[in-house]
Amino acid sequence: MNLFGSTPSDVEDIEEVTSSGEDQYEGSTKSTHTDSIPPVSSNRAEKKGKSSSKPKRFCKFNKEWIKNPQYTSFLQEYRSDSSLAHCSICKSNFSIANGGLYLINRHREQENHKRLAVIAAETISRSIFDFVHPPSQLIAMTAAEITLVYHGVRHGHSYISQSCTAKVSKKLFHDSVIAKDISCGRTKAREIAVNVLGKYAFIFHAEILTNCSGAPYFNSKITEAVNQTRFFSLSFDASNKGHKKMFPFVINYFTIDRGIVRSVMEVIEQPNETADGIVASLREVLTMNNIDIMNMTSIGADNTNVNFGRYHSVFALLQSNFPNLKKGNCFSHVLNNSVKISHQCLAVDVESSLSKLYGHFSSSAKRVEHLKEYFDFVEQDQRLLLQHIKIRWLSLYPSIERLLKVYEPLSAYFLDMGDHDEFTCPPIIAEFLTSTEAKCTLYFLHNLLFDIQKKALELQRHYVSIVDLNRIVSSLRVKLDERLKQNYFGYQTRVLLNSMIESERDKLTQSFFEYISTMLAYIEKYYSEQKELAELAAIFGVCDLDRITFHQIEQCIDFLKMDIDRDRLFDEVSLLRSTWKEVISYREPLDLQIQQHIKNNVNHVPEKLDNDLWNESEDDDNLFHKPTTNNCDKEMEIRSDQFWAFLLARSKPMCIEMHKIVSYVFSIPCSNAFVEGVFSHMKNAWTASRNLMANETIAAELKIRLNSHMKCEDFFSFIQSQPELIKAAR
């Protein structure tokens, strides 16, 4: 049996060289082995003289040699033949028959043996920790990989780009114990995004929803958090991406830690945009996430027949099984459509003229340069015209405002064009710019659409619900009614009307009157369906409990048909009123107390969500031509949902019945703007260069983008405190 797996051919043939150390030789001078050392050459024999004539002795392996520290590392016995020795480093057998220790020492001094010995020594010297990272280092390294993926998804990087970033980081930070071992290729990055961050995308909102000292929250924890609030609504919409029809489903609910929360639950493909197909998908999404459909209060969608038609619609099918289900009409669509429908009452087609003006310059760089030279000549600042798209919200007012800012120099530019100039003025544009009626209509729309734009922006805030609908729509209706009663359409409009002859003035005034009347009628058509609920729920938009009576709360309960313990509710209302009086008696203002409460419960409050109202008010100031007056009303400085969240959290014991009512009313949406925003993110992520992304990949990326607002540097610290996420990423 060959113990070391070597064949006789592996045995080294070594020449015997006699020396003064030959007294160490053992055995006889005869060697019966076929691989014995050959005789020395005649030249060397002459040098050695008589020593070469001494007989050669046969040597056998001595096990005592292995105990010698010089040979322990490599020398082993070859059991099949005692005249051979085995080297564990070289993995070969060599003869010791005619040399014994001399031949062992000779083998040890060979260059190949020395080279292999160095490699073996390095391998043996490495401990297990050289191959297995310490726990803390492994966690930091995995967290770094997840953070790189999170950063890439948040900023719209492709997975090829993320793979390249990881490789570059290893080169740039080669002396870092974390960066040097990062491995995050394209496939791994995609798997982390889909199966770790996407699968557990609700984790970030779950940390906000429950106060459990940073414990990990996965789908089951989110389901538990939603079910604890009991009531929720579901919003959805559809959009085409090539040949695919994508449906995002957004869940809306109220928590005492943050107020209103909206999260992307799923994004699925549904080719059959029918009522039956949408209802089936809706039920599947809720079942997939273990959420009880019996607690659904409303569905939010745009106002199409397939969603809210009288007969075979999504709402009709669901309401047949859940009679208390409420409509969540999108009033952002209502305001936009009211403006679009009312344009047919105007004597001048403003939308077509705006499109013609924009198209004249957008298709030619030479025309833009020529216009720039003209503005420089008249010493005016050039401002590019803004495009108006009929199906896009909020695009008409900015387009009109920009045109009026450059109206005089732009009119002079077109009207100065001659027939022999390089560029000629199109007849439609010339007619529009020379018409006093057109200019008067522009000023009328500019003055009127300011109020529409302001309310449309307010409806698009993520925390607006049915509680705010009555305040928003009623204030708009009052302003429009007042314009009709006073026959007031703006100062500049009045100046231009007075400059016209009576017949033209009356005709234009009548068109303005019909425009506002048509807009009011369209808004009233949809608001009448929600009016009773909106008026009853409006009491929860008041941040002064002295103005809320128990009878008003009971009326809201009766309309919603909620099962509430009235006696207990009365005690809770009294407790909440006492709590409210206590907190307003403090030196610190109530709004600051509420903001501190939100920050204490949310470790990673995004700056843009910290105080949406104030930030959006600043945006309004930058957008509109006149300042807003939102600081006139103290209630507008406090979000009503956060007010009730703060009050319920401060009241001890917990006001269970009141919590049910507040959760119900704040879960009902009045705008589908958040879902529409999902499509904007989808467009940015699903670009032409990434058009091969699977549905589950884009769904995961949208969940990561919209369900988490943590900064990338904060996310690295956060993810290290989530052991289950770290484990899932490995």
TrEMBL record:
Top-level taxon: Eukaryota
Region named Disordered: 1-55
Polar residues composition-biased segments: 17-43
InterPro entries in the record: RNaseH-like_sf
Protein name: HAT C-terminal dimerisation domain-containing protein
The species this protein was found in: Adineta ricciae (Rotifer)
